## 1
Amino acid sequence: MKSDVKNNAIGIFDSGVGGLTVLHSIVSRLPYENTVYVGDTARVPYGTKSARTVTQYAIGIGEFLSHIPVKALVVACNTASAFALDALRGRFDLPIVGMIDPAARRAVAASKNGRIGVIGTVGTVKSGAYGRAIKHISPDVEVLAHACPLFVPLAEEGWLSNDIARLSAQKYLEPMKRHGVDTVILGCTHYPLLKEVISEVLGEGVTLVDSGDEAALDLEGLLVDRGLHRKGGGASHRFYVTDTPDRFVEVGESFLGGRLSDVSHVDIP
Amino acid sequence: MKSDVKNNAIGIFDSGVGGLTVLHSIVSRLPYENTVYVGDTARVPYGTKSARTVTQYAIGIGEFLSHIPVKALVVACNTASAFALDALRGRFDLPIVGMIDPAARRAVAASKNGRIGVIGTVGTVKSGAYGRAIKHISPDVEVLAHACPLFVPLAEEGWLSNDIARLSAQKYLEPMKRHGVDTVILGCTHYPLLKEVISEVLGEGVTLVDSGDEAALDLEGLLVDRGLHRKGGGASHRFYVTDTPDRFVEVGESFLGGRLSDVSHVDIP
């Protein structure tokens, strides 16, 4: 019975292609796990939408994934993690990993001067979720959060290191740098593609925390603890999108860092 | 009876705040008309979504507006006009104005060398709707279409004339300029906010066609023809959004060029 559950996939979802960077982190760390990814491309982006709307979408996707079934759920979207994690945990009897807490813990551990920057979508920043998670661990840490709306289209255009990317990073990050943060959380799954230019602007002394890498680490811990860790065999990776697959495939491969096959359409209410 | 219909509002809808530039054009041209605006902010943007999905959303909004009732419908979104206009015309017995045809006619009239550029979202450009509309009027015209995904967040950030806006405009528009277009259609309702920087890059010899201005002119013609034109009295302007109103109000006022009041939430299936 237990061995059957081990073979169940890990369910991962995001509003679109961004969560593929998280899937990349998960597959790198846990190469034998089967995965099912849902990209809610008919309703992307979540970053400018309200808590109520995003929670409703997340629960719909959770229902779909839990019926596949899956053995764990990864909310590979910072906005959905900020808004909907409690509602998901109340509804589904599954190990659930979000983006916020793992990255917050890593940032607190990494910061030497107690000044942490958080960058993300308007929704994630407005939610204040990273600030709360960080202060829950270490109340004296100072948190500076800033939304960077141009980073998502820059990543999707593949403009990762041109003048426009550099100037946008400067405009968004200079105030944070001047304030002396020594650690910055990449609080949006699109941002790892811009890691180089972000790091260049912030300078070598600043540690970048990738929320996807930290979530993958957390997921590994949960699976090992519960005896659900799959340690060998071939792994399958399936993808569902709520809009037509064409653009998801076109843009998504640079996010995944690999070929996207087995992508189907699904309607989720 | 006819006078009652005259007092009915004009229904205008868009995926979000962009259509407020069209509303601005309509109110400038038709100051005595009542209006009801729907911004589908829970599902914005339409620009990266498929024809099927956008058509389904547009019909839902058409149902909502036709029950208010309204005396005419303006699809103040280029993507929805490109994808859903025929479906809307088949379904609703109302004068319906889209963004594509009025701008296409104006561009053909304005161009002297028969080279017309079209800029818009990925969805609008991929649909090829402007090219078809232009070639339907004048088959020999050469049409160059290009998507400019950064323009929407630039407009929403209010970065209308800084280095980032200028460099993005150069990167998107230089190939079109080199090709010698003498007329460019602003085929996305966000783009009029960036008119200055677009014009600066393209140069003085290039005519910009604002799809909202042309749609307002078309709407006036339709209302006058059918005796539905309201010629005096105070006008009311109501707004509905499918997500919570806060961000719509925050970002929308620069698009409307005025105060946004009377904004309510509505659920549209």
Note: The longest strand of chain A covers residues 9-14.
## 2
Amino acid sequence: MINTLIKNIQEKNAPIVVGLDPMMNYIPEHIQKAAFEEYGETLKGAAEAIWVYNKGIIDATYDLIPAVKPQIAMYEQFGIEGLIAFHKTCAYAKEKGLVVIGDIKRGDIGSTSTAYAIGHLGKVKVGSKAYAGFDEDFVTVNPYLGTDGVKPFVDVCKEENKGIFVLVKTSNPSSGEFQDKLVDGRPLYELVAEKVVEWGNECMGDTYSNVGCVVGATYPEMGKVLRKLMPKTYILVPGYGAQGGKAADLVHYFNEDGLGAIVNSSRGIIAAYKQEKYASFGEANYADASRQAVVDMIADINGALGK
Amino acid sequence: MINTLIKNIQEKNAPIVVGLDPMMNYIPEHIQKAAFEEYGETLKGAAEAIWVYNKGIIDATYDLIPAVKPQIAMYEQFGIEGLIAFHKTCAYAKEKGLVVIGDIKRGDIGSTSTAYAIGHLGKVKVGSKAYAGFDEDFVTVNPYLGTDGVKPFVDVCKEENKGIFVLVKTSNPSSGEFQDKLVDGRPLYELVAEKVVEWGNECMGDTYSNVGCVVGATYPEMGKVLRKLMPKTYILVPGYGAQGGKAADLVHYFNEDGLGAIVNSSRGIIAAYKQEKYASFGEANYADASRQAVVDMIADINGALGK
């Protein structure tokens, strides 16, 4: 699956991913109103609004971008109905030729991680049949439980030609609380990075591994070190834009081949119409504002990379 | 919510929780057959089988136990239909007076953790209304992202009188890979434990905090140390029985008041009928076998505690 992601990135000359992390207050009034008129102010109404909003953004941007990254929490908060919207969003993005990175940050003991891996990347057996529950292309994985919590995901990736991104250094302010702690003089996230390489060696694509990692844009010095420590590991980079990460900081997340990193923006794209810069599009044309924000983000990052 | 859990434990004299982690191969033939006849060999058929199976176990054990702990991965692997069975199971267990611990091991950056916390412990706003998505009483939380990934759960616990159990030292074989790494001479899990105490101080019940932790039964020496480090923290203890933890090992997970720990068993209870010891019940009477396994587990643990 990493081969497909790289092919998409190269064809579109866009090392970016759009984070589909809908919040009710991002969704334009006319979409909310229509959904609530049809289903009432219910979980189903909220889910319908989210789905229509996402579809608008996908339709307006899919020709420019290689991938989307829906954050499942934003759907899960609306219970079953929200998860139906998540599932529809993933399926629709795939129909449009996009790689879908499910930002689920799961991770548990072995048999339980197997269930998550099957549910999101594989197929579950029911009697003589087998079904894909959610069917993303990649998912994010939390490594706190160690190898036997991550390996089941790697095994399913091998069987199904899928991929994962393992959390190494997250973008949030307190990520250092545990991740930066020194173990024999080296930060814990470097130990995790070494394991990512080990897990990834088992599951290589042509030039990069199907086991990628997450390193926040907000810690560029660490990103630089981690890039070198994991030369064949794709880095999913959250934290650009709204969280404070800048394109110039991200250059060292890439390898000399111009590959090796994919930068996420969520709010900055999907709620672009709320920014002063894109306000002229107006709320009704939120999707066009998102398209322009994608164009600008690609130019910003490719500019920093000298492409 | 910790007060309610403790009250349930005391009334039933049973410091245990039944892990509702259904696997298809645990579910008796007659239940699978009936579900598949009604819905076919589909995700809906599987979900129906899981729900009927769970209901049987709850009906046969609810008067003996204080709580259940459904592991959401086992449902999520069946996609939306599986999650509907999870939701029904949680709601039914609550109807029967049980405390529901959602074993979800979520954890993310601040705004995303807020969404998880709202979805599982709180209420989400939809226009002028508010709805509970899944509505467990407690959930398990992964601490790898640090304080700003955990605090949103604590905040929702305060508002809604709910609780969490934060992973400190998990029961799986490779849990030590990162959790045991020495930081200034002390294992990482102790640093996490100190944070658990800090987070918990903000959210106290009468005698224990609503912020509990997870420490596996498979590491009794560490459990002993952690018990003392976190005197007011309830410990959720997985790993008893099938994973190898023994009652005698668990004594030190409890405080001198006889409280402070709740021991989980999943397979050992819900698939008891498959063990030689309970085989005489027969597959048709799987729920009676589960009831006997609960009686035996309570006696085993109370025996070790000298109760």
Note: Chain B touches chain A through 72 residues (CB under 8 Å).
## 3
Amino acid sequence: MFFHRQELQFKATPDQPDAVFARKLQELLGGQYGEITVALQYMFQGWNMHIPGKYRDLVFGIAAEEIGHVEMLATMIAQLLEKAPVGVTGKALQDDPTVAAIVGGMDVQHAIVAGAGARPVDSNGNPWQGSYITASGNLLADFTANANAEMQGRTQAARMYHMTDDHGVRDLLSFLIARDTMHQNQWAAAARELQEEGYELMPTPSNFPQSKEYQQVSYQYLNFSDGKTAAEGSWASGPSPDGKGEFTYHDGPTTTAPMPPPTHADSRFYGTTELPNSIEKTAGMVQDKLNKE
Amino acid sequence: MFFHRQELQFKATPDQPDAVFARKLQELLGGQYGEITVALQYMFQGWNMHIPGKYRDLVFGIAAEEIGHVEMLATMIAQLLEKAPVGVTGKALQDDPTVAAIVGGMDVQHAIVAGAGARPVDSNGNPWQGSYITASGNLLADFTANANAEMQGRTQAARMYHMTDDHGVRDLLSFLIARDTMHQNQWAAAARELQEEGYELMPTPSNFPQSKEYQQVSYQYLNFSDGKTAAEGSWASGPSPDGKGEFTYHDGPTTTAPMPPPTHADSRFYGTTELPNSIEKTAGMVQDKLNKE
Amino acid sequence: MFFHRQELQFKATPDQPDAVFARKLQELLGGQYGEITVALQYMFQGWNMHIPGKYRDLVFGIAAEEIGHVEMLATMIAQLLEKAPVGVTGKALQDDPTVAAIVGGMDVQHAIVAGAGARPVDSNGNPWQGSYITASGNLLADFTANANAEMQGRTQAARMYHMTDDHGVRDLLSFLIARDTMHQNQWAAAARELQEEGYELMPTPSNFPQSKEYQQVSYQYLNFSDGKTAAEGSWASGPSPDGKGEFTYHDGPTTTAPMPPPTHADSRFYGTTELPNSIEKTAGMVQDKLNKE
Amino acid sequence: MFFHRQELQFKATPDQPDAVFARKLQELLGGQYGEITVALQYMFQGWNMHIPGKYRDLVFGIAAEEIGHVEMLATMIAQLLEKAPVGVTGKALQDDPTVAAIVGGMDVQHAIVAGAGARPVDSNGNPWQGSYITASGNLLADFTANANAEMQGRTQAARMYHMTDDHGVRDLLSFLIARDTMHQNQWAAAARELQEEGYELMPTPSNFPQSKEYQQVSYQYLNFSDGKTAAEGSWASGPSPDGKGEFTYHDGPTTTAPMPPPTHADSRFYGTTELPNSIEKTAGMVQDKLNKE
Amino acid sequence: MFFHRQELQFKATPDQPDAVFARKLQELLGGQYGEITVALQYMFQGWNMHIPGKYRDLVFGIAAEEIGHVEMLATMIAQLLEKAPVGVTGKALQDDPTVAAIVGGMDVQHAIVAGAGARPVDSNGNPWQGSYITASGNLLADFTANANAEMQGRTQAARMYHMTDDHGVRDLLSFLIARDTMHQNQWAAAARELQEEGYELMPTPSNFPQSKEYQQVSYQYLNFSDGKTAAEGSWASGPSPDGKGEFTYHDGPTTTAPMPPPTHADSRFYGTTELPNSIEKTAGMVQDKLNKE
Amino acid sequence: MFFHRQELQFKATPDQPDAVFARKLQELLGGQYGEITVALQYMFQGWNMHIPGKYRDLVFGIAAEEIGHVEMLATMIAQLLEKAPVGVTGKALQDDPTVAAIVGGMDVQHAIVAGAGARPVDSNGNPWQGSYITASGNLLADFTANANAEMQGRTQAARMYHMTDDHGVRDLLSFLIARDTMHQNQWAAAARELQEEGYELMPTPSNFPQSKEYQQVSYQYLNFSDGKTAAEGSWASGPSPDGKGEFTYHDGPTTTAPMPPPTHADSRFYGTTELPNSIEKTAGMVQDKLNKE
């Protein structure tokens, strides 16, 4: 169960209207790595988790915080739009290049659809979608996904910090960036702890029987480009991070197989197939066969 | 530039037809973490990369291998469909519950749209989409995304290994799983190397000035659920993985702010606002104002 | 801010596994009118609302309840999948038509992607998307959207009630149906109250100046089909529900205008246009013009 | 069957080019609540309807009118683009901030893809999609959806009326707004008539047996936020609009249940589960089990 | 304007229920090349067309027919579902493998969402979307798109003809296939006529000045795969179909250029860049620079 | 298998930064008819092809070239963004209308998400999707799709040529336009050759038995609009292009059928049906029936 309190985790009020920045903030709210993504990702990980205890408490505890971040961003966006010249303006104003530029740079659905409110979309107006989230039931894989999400999110917030001078907006961003610092560290710690406690090791999933993978290529670097310097990396020689193998470097594949011959589906799929001896003859044969059905 | 060779990296021929498994394989080909995703993800990381050398050679080298994996899966899928009873069958057969079940379990577009061929979709028939990929220009973030993609992909392939007894299919899966073992290790090694060489440290992005984040909450575990055991994790006390902080644990937020008052957009957005003293009066006022424009 | 409590609003445990029904339940979780939709719809209405007080408290109060419904459904789905034969089974079992039928009827991503867990998708596997929700800032319009969402949701849940005999599942559905009864009534009451208090009247938005709409057709029923009985409805004669007009019935339009002539865009868009006197001549002209740039 | 007449229901010619407004008009053409939505929504309701007569004639009659509205908007958009400086212009012009702003504010696919023509997308360029429409077979639910669609559509058109001074555009909008006035009233009348004639009552669906819903919570207002004023609404006490219950107000849930224990899926899904006594031992066990298959 | 007549162009009644085939028919209704696609494609081509007369009359005349085809398919689908065992059945029946298989093979949203009615989706349940259509304003390009759409549609209908024995369904398919025969021929004729009349020639767009394309490679077959037989085709030697060039065959590219050096974006995008001499030093520099802003 | 060479097929370096044009170029990279589409379309056609030899070598040979075009465009886009004022700029600059206009006209995700890099999206930021491609197994249909793709692509590139004065960009476009010239010609030649060699004739699929289509309407032009001039085209009289029929012209349909009566689904779908004699009586009956289950 979830409960709502009509308070924010941090102040979220801009110094002044800015419809163009309101649009940009949508990325942090409803983008691939926005707050809706992490909120629902952590929730689904909790609902699909197979073990009780600290890891499940962890994902639930952060999931709820993240919906509150959606709320802070939506609140900020509505205020950035509140008094901005978002299209409903006198003619004179609209002819002003500055105003015109704002209309160009804003999300016009902020005005037309939401009446100067926030929307569940990214900064290009693409609706948020369920395929952004990851919850596989394998915790080492999922915590790595979480670490990535927090890294991408923090990078985006950091970029946007330099796209505004508004102190209110910068304050909110500095708060969100700090929480991303925490969450990056937390998922790194959780992924490390999972491994130290033996829940899961690399490569994930760790209890797929090694005998069943084609081990000849499990630690081979196979280079399909012509760049030569990939051979210099720690992925091309020396022990592998999982402690189970030794990297080797190869230019191109170490195994190949001929392409199997083209398939021939049932003729009633009407795919194009080998040329018969004569068209008329075949047409007749096909006709015969089909007329029987 | 890319060049194609009409050979496969590994044999990809099933023992027998299986339209239902063909559908499942689509997840590895065109799913969120399928081979189209990793192929294009690594390419875009290469095209957007700001440094020449081993890291760029690495992403290009693997990207090209991954398109070859798309090819192996598509080739396998076409063969699994080749002689399967995928709907174009005599009435008697269709009434057979086993055949009916196959039609139920298959991707019907394999038959109707592709004429017994592979499709750029996942196992539920959702078209592959560009929003699956990640290429931010920040390599530590992106290599973490890559590690996650290989972990999710290997987990899915491992699951599917147990969903078939076909030796040909299992052979292909065991090859792909081995390459996922390699690629997980490789991205882990690359992420470690990036940090050791000082290109990027945690938290990412590492050169966002620490003074600009709201440091009071950068290492606080804030628990928004009522599970008590999250306090026991290594994310709740002790030094943080980035080596820059000390975790603390708090039940709920350490900072709060009142929600700002509701916004009032321009009246010409026709949002619902406070009730005027009398409706008639206001209606008149609004009418007056609008008639003037 | 949102807080999570590790309890459910109602019991959500099935009598036995049923992967096919688990897939159907996804419609109530992640479909167009599923619980994610209403949860986020009510939240965005709250964040975009221009008036404090009972209407805003209403949307926040219900929004939080609805995320809890997402949680109950996800919890139920994971249990329905827990011991179901979802593909990872011995060969013998897979050849059993009943098992095959289950695999046909289930969401295969439940197994492959989520490892027997819930997903943010509908019953056809389409990812939930932000374009399902409605939050315009106009409360009469939005509360009507909410009433519709609860009506569609209750209809779907009622249908699904008859698709299972599992007592645990039916109990959960009977609880959700009861809450939909409440929420339908509540939005009807809220829409009525909005109008009684004068916040908004029909037609919405009610303060768009009537003088600015083309009033000749504001209360005309214009019939563009050849069914004659539409004339018998209360929408074809008598006073209109908004109390401002009198319906009239017309067979076909009462106004028409000629189509304007085709447009002629800049020739550099290379659209096909009128045939010149001679092709050669024009080609020369175009060439001349373009070569100058 | 549908027949086309090369006339419009109303004039649709702008005074002058305006590529930015052309983009905004796309919302009314191809947005969530645009004319394609209502046209197809009413058609599908007609095709899925279970009763002949006035209700079916009604949806068919309006559906056909609405495709004509798509046509008027497309015609207007093409004209707004006809002579607008949409990117194919001399360098000097492009350096003019006003022209640059137009390019920023326009839908660039209007130029690149459609050669100065209309597109089946919304004002952010999102393609129209079938998931916008509603046709459940339950007419009270569907007519409520229709009333909502007309309310949202009229609100958007009213907002856009104030975003232009072009008389031709305003004329078309004033016509569409008038038709939305009619259609709002019409769906309200039809919903009322359905109930008066006993086809369907609240709550919808009305013949789901009341005994099968969990009636204890059918009329309870359960407040999951901390706003206190929701208790003041007509949804918190007094008789419910469906005439079958009495509202009561409760702070938080009146029923709760413990979360069921985490699920344990088949181990071959490789989800993370409880820690075994010793990793080595389990690994061995798993290996044994798997090697047997 | 469009007018609806409550008649069908052809009978559309099945012999018996078949929920699985109802799902397959959705491909022809709402798939990439279904009837919604061609109806809207031809309409948008009409609205965006720059010349009056026979070509515009052609697209409008067929567009209206195609919406009627949507109607026939929707009508057929509703009837196929009418008495089919689509899930709402007694327990005994659901345990019957045949019934279970039907539920597996059907579109479950037909039951849950539409109450045994048609939906605006394809045979995998993907919603129809505006990005399926093509209307560029260039008629030779667009008529080629139309010819393709009719070819793909006829191929799909022909495949489905062999997936059923129902006479009513086969009758409808045989009618639709005949119309596809007509429409293929018609677009071929129209494309030929456009060229004969000089409106447009190959390559399209034909009046892009030849001097502005990089003519050295305009008629070169460049082979980027290792298949040798592509050299045998009429595309590898001899005159080109546009009558303006002579094909030549080349193994691989005839032109190459070095990749430009990696880009270096503004440091405030926090992309990973070249390693500085010492991390500490740089960190200090960046800090200095940023603190100034 | 695919191999990558770190070279481009043609130079791809702009004279100067231009973030707005970078966004436009995304259409050619990731749009409906962009290079990702043709690359994957040709690959899937190869993987699904049923005949070895020149046609398969052809699609593979071009597919690989087209990924190289994706690479050239991505490389160009990154350079156009490299030094452009894309939002991360001093306040003074952002107030400059020209800079503001650039921010309005650019793809803001270029900055926020990709850190000044290319993205797998179109010029409106819609992610590329698998439903853009066509690979049916029927080669005449598919080569027609390919011809269309190259025509649309060349038209778009030609339009964009006139939207820039940058010599580097124009050079790249002139190269791509020349390749589109080649590819249009090549698919036209291949489609012709397929027919000359008898693999496939019009109408496609050519071996669907003519006796099974409803031949009465196979060559009838049926006009559902009121434009009279469609009768003048070569599609309305004379021999049909497939050489098998004679076109005739008809105003409106030549066949009609009454709409079948409305369907009545199982009452447990709760669709609205005919009004019973009295509501109370029916409610009782339904209740009785349902209570028994």
Note: Chain E has a mean pLDDT of 92.
